[in-house]
Amino acid sequence: MSASNGRVAGKRVLVTGAARGMGRSHAVRLAEEGADLILVDICESLPTLEYPLASPEDLEETARLVEKHDRRAITHIVDVRDSTALAAAVDDGVEQLGGLDAAVANAGVLTVGTWDTTTPDQWRTVLDVNLIGTWNTCAAALPHLVERGGSLINISSAAGLKGTPLHLPYTASKHGVVGLSRALANELAAVNVRVNTVHPTGVETGMRPESLHELLADKRPDLVPVFLNAMPIVMAEAIDISNAVLFLVSDESRFVTGMEFKVDAGVTIR
Ligand SMILES: NC(=O)c1ccc[n+]([C@@H]2O[C@H](COP(=O)([O-])OP(=O)(O)OC[C@H]3O[C@@H](n4cnc5c(N)ncnc54)[C@H](O)[C@@H]3O)[C@@H](O)[C@H]2O)c1
Q1: What does the alpha-carbon distance between residue 76 and residue 73 come to, in Å, rounded to a whole number?
Q2: What is the atom index within ligand 1 of the atom nearest the CA of 51?
Q3: Which of 47, 230, 231, 267 has the most crowded Cβ, counting Cβ within 10 A?
Q4: HEC profile for 2-36?
Q5: Counting beta carbons within 10 angstroms of the beta carbon of residue 262, is it exposed (0 to 12), middle (13 to 18) or buried (19 or more)?
Q6: Percentage of the chain with pLDDT > 70?
Q7: What residues form DSSP beta bridges with 198?
């Protein structure tokens, strides 16, 4: 498949959290099918998190992988919590690419703890990045989408649909992304902007808080079944989620809006 006749040929797409993990995978899969990309990432670690976030080199590597498919990549190091800086970065990318067709709000963070050890700082950081950051991404993209229509894809989680324990702020934030997206889908349907959420099961990425495994093994083995997929795999792969994102960016999904797209190996039916 050459990029010029790909499934999203000529589309211009914003991806946040694009430096590594699923964000990188979405960007590269979209480039493979002909899209140009605006790639945003914070590229520094946050003290509240027990695992490191991406580096500037990671973001450059994603851009290089996009360019390998002869597509354009505009990079900006921005924290999605900073709505002003994010809007400026998106405006700049849109000016360089000549427009915007879709945005993937993918940046997200995870803290771990039982109900009685979860701190206000964890609540604020996770809600700020995962929920308000998703809103900031939609808000930065929308002025460029409302004229011609477009697609907003907000990355939630299986934890956005079930009561996944031991990370209350994360589960609450990912449920919040669903409410935000459903309501926004209603407001924007009239101008042909579609809004959908994607719900991955566990995927091996840089989001690796070791304490989750310790908590499950040492303190709450009774909760292990909540995390088990119905299908016989431990984890999905990033590409499985990227293929769902690709469909939602493409015109193949032109009348799909307000949907919760599960790529979860059945974890939410358990
Ligand atoms: N990995 C999983 O098992 C899993 C499962 C379900 C949903 N998700 C969701 O998928 C999305 C991608 O996660 P991933 O697994 O690739 O994790 P990851 O940690 O590998 O990647 C997340 C990226 O987001 C960036 N980021 C974090 N905070 C940011 C901020 N404030 N501003 C800008 N960029 C920021 C990080 O630097 C990193 O590059 C997240 O929303 C996550 O919640 C992950």
Answers
A1: 10
A2: 19
A3: 267
A4: CHHHCCCCCCEEEEECCCCHHHHHHHHHHHHCCCE
A5: buried
A6: 99
A7: 155, 261
Longest dimension (CA), the chain: 54
Closest by CA to 103, choosing from 188, 170, 172, 169, is 188
**Ligand 1 within 6 A of 136 CB?**
no
Decide: 13 in ligand 1 pocket, CB within 6 A: no
Indicate whether 2 pLDDT > 90. no
- Taking the C-alpha atoms of residue 136 and residue 142, their distance in angstroms, rounded to an integer, is 10
Residue 54 tokens read as: 């991406």
Residues 6+ away with beta carbon under 8 Å from 218: none
Residues 37 and 110: their CA atoms lie apart, in Å, by: 26
Please tell me what DSSP assigns to residue 44. Answer: S
Q: Which two tokens stand for residue 65?
A: 């992988």
Q: What pLDDT, in 10s, does the model give residues 192-240?
A: 999 999 999 999 999 999 999 999 999 999 999 999 999 999 999 999 9
Amino acid letter, residue 202: G
pTM beyond 0.90: yes
3-55 pLDDT, tens per residue?
A: 678 999 999 999 999 999 999 999 999 999 999 999 999 999 999 999 999 99
Ligand 1 atom 32: the closest Cα is on which residue?
79
The residue annotated as part of the active site, out of 8, 101, 170, 244, is: 170
Model pLDDT, residue 5:
86
Measured CA to CA, the distance from residue 245 to residue 1 in angstroms comes to 18
Q: Are 265 and 230 in contact (CB under 8 A)?
A: yes
